[in-house]
Amino acid sequence: LLGTGLGCALYALCAHRPDASDALFANLAVAAEGRMDLALLASDTLHGRDDLPLPDSLYRLQSYELLIGAVAWVTRIPPLHVLHLVAAAVGAFLVPLAHAELFRRLTPRHWGVSVVVLVLVLVCVGDTGRGYANLAFLRIWQGGGVFLFVFVPLLYSYAMAYSQTPSGRRLALLAAAQVAALGCSAHAVWVAPVVVLSGLLAGAPFSRAGAIRVTRGLAPSLYGVCAAIALGASLGLEGAPRAVELGARLQAGIAQVLGDGALSVVCLAAVLGAWTCCPPGQGRRFAVFAPLVALLISLDPWLDDWLYRNVTGQSTWRLLWTLPIPILATLVVVSPLQAGPWLPPRAGVAVTAALCAVFV
Prior knowledge:
The protein is an all-alpha fold.
C-alpha cells in the first residue's frame, strides 16, 4: 500500500494535462498569500482587479486554497510550488490509502489487489479532460480532486461503518469527513449527502433500527446545508432556459465525463452489472445502493432541469461525482478472485489479470 501511494505521488508529479479552471483555483491560493490587504475570498483577482466578484459565491465555502496560501506564507514557498509539488504529491499519495479503507469493507480478502486495480483503472483512462482519471492524479492538486478521490471513499466507508455498528466515534468521523470535504470543494454541499446516504443504506440492516441509523447518520449532512444557507449563496439560476429535450443537459454532462466511445459502454456495464459480480456481503450491497441512490436523486433525467436551476448550474457534469464508477469497475475486475469454490484461486488470478489487460 505504501509503495502504491508513493508510485501515485510520483505519477502526479510527472503527468500533466492543462484545464481551463487551473488558473482560477490557483489564483485563489496566490491571492490568499499575496494580497494580505484584501479580505479572504472577497473577490476574483485573476485579472489583476479587486472589484470583480468570484465566478460562484459558493467558492467562499472552500478552505483548501486558503490552506495552500497559509502553508506558502509560513514556509515562504511560492503558492504555485505548494500546489503543484506538495499538494499534488500528498493528494495522490492519499488516493490509494483512502480507497484501501473502503475496499477493506467491500473486498476484505482482496482489498490490496482492489486498490492496485483501482489505480490501474484511473491511470489508463484519459479520454476526457473532466473524466475521473484526470481529476484523480493529473488535477489532484485541486480541491475537487482531493474531495472526489480522498474524501468520497472515506464518506462511503465511514457511513457503512456507522450504519453497521453505530457509535459516537464513528458518527464524529463521518461528520469530520464531511466538514473537510466541504473545505475541499463547495460542491460537497450536495454531493456529500448523496454519497453518505448510499453508504448508510449499504450498511444498515433492513429494520426499524436500520432506518433510525440512516436518519441519524444523515444528521451531519446538515452542516453543508446550513453553511450554504448562512452564506446566502445565490447561483443566479432563476429564469435559466429549459433544455430542448428531456435530460439533454445530463446527457451532455455524461459525455463530458465518460466520452461517447467504448469507455462509456464499459462504465454503463459496470454500473448496471457490478452487483451481479459480487458475492453476498458489503460489496454487493454497495454495488446495489450506490448506483440506485445516484440514479434516483442526482442522475434522474426528470430532475435534470430542476437540478440545473437550483443545484448545479453550469456544473451539470459534476452530477457524475455521485456515481462511483471507478470503484464499481474495480469490483467487476476483481470479482473472479471472489468467485468461490467453482473457480480455483489460480484461475481467478488469471481471469482478473485478463480483465485488467482487456480494460487497458
